[in-house]
Input
Amino acid sequence: MKHSHFFKIITISSILTLALCLTSCKEKKENGKTQKITEKITEKLEELKTDKENKKTADSESGKKSDENKKTDTAKSDTSTKSNQKSIAVFVPGIIADSPIYAMLADGVKSAVNKYNEGKAKADRAEVYILEAGTNQAEWSKKITALAAQQKYDVIISSNPSLPDLVVPIVKQFPNQKFILLDAELKGNKNIFTICYNQYEQAFLTGYIGGLMSKSHKMALIAAQEYPVMNNILLPYFEKGGKEANKKTTVDFRVVGNWYDANKGAVLADSVIENGVDVILPICGGASQGVINSAVNHKVYVTWFDNNGFEKAPGTIISSSILKQKEMASIATENYLSGLTSWGTADMVGVSDGFVDFVQDDPLYIQTVPANIRRKMEKMVDSIRSGNYKVK
Ligand code: RBF
Output
């Protein structure tokens, strides 16, 4: 995995402490690991906040100011009560319902802003506005441009691999507009910071459990649409994981055509099941519910992506390969609010950083997946985490 530069955006001491914390979390093999990592990240955030506030005081004393601060500072006089107030827009390229990656984005930004606002006077509090752009992708460019054109939001935070292409022309038009893009990758634009997840690992682990659980050795990925990350990472590495578990494993690929049509999801699932598929990975937003319904009816398995999905269909969902998108959104927002964003950089975080994980402590996982398979999974996750097994 590409070495993470993300933590370089915070102080060196913070880097070391956070790395130590994540390493020590990684070493814990008992149940509750995921929760512990989350708790540790949260604890670390508290510490970082103090570090950052100290740094900020030192910086402003020595006269250094970030670009954002300069902008707000020039707008106020020393006696003004209106001031440092930061305004953040969250641009959701789709809808939050049934897309955990977007729910985690919005939750993470809100939680960071709430923390930042604690104990602050009204005039100093940051504000968040969340815009759901809807499922018509043809409208996204117009909607995000309109948001930037208001020149009201210091930063627009979003999540989606298609966003860099939409945003680059916008920063040419509005050179003060900053963007933080998660689940996206673009280097070298000083208005844009991106961070993506190691989805090679996420897809591989999902394929590996699918391959271990499948009796027919036939799996399927039902996607909402084709896009480069889907075609070049998610599908091939899901298949690679399946083959690592059992060489005979094959993967059928079907496309819904949108991120919401549950009926179409069910029709596609029925059809692959008819062909003998007994493990399905849905990556299709609201259409995933149709896939789950079909899998429950036909008693086949579903592997789940992005958040913990076991509760959606106990006994049918065999895995949850998760992204810590809420934590990432929160960290990125806190860093922004503290003037510590590394503009122009692109980063990737994965299993070894604690931002991609495979849920092993959920009682429904333990009930549904036999112990010998869980042991194999644990070994694989640990090997990836320690760097002994390179997925890519
Ligand atoms: N993922 C979702 O969960 N919901 C969506 O509505 C959604 N829309 C997307 C639209 C485009 C154009 C692209 C490229 C990806 C979209 N994704 C969506 C997929 C998301 O970025 C990610 O790949 C998956 O959530 C798997 O982690």
Notes: The longest strand covers residues 317-323. The chain has three domains: 2-72, 86-197, 199-323+360-386. Residues 2-72 form one domain. Residues 93-94, 99, 101, 137, 160-162, 183, 227, 229, 259, 283, 285, 305-306 surround riboflavin (CB under 6 Å).
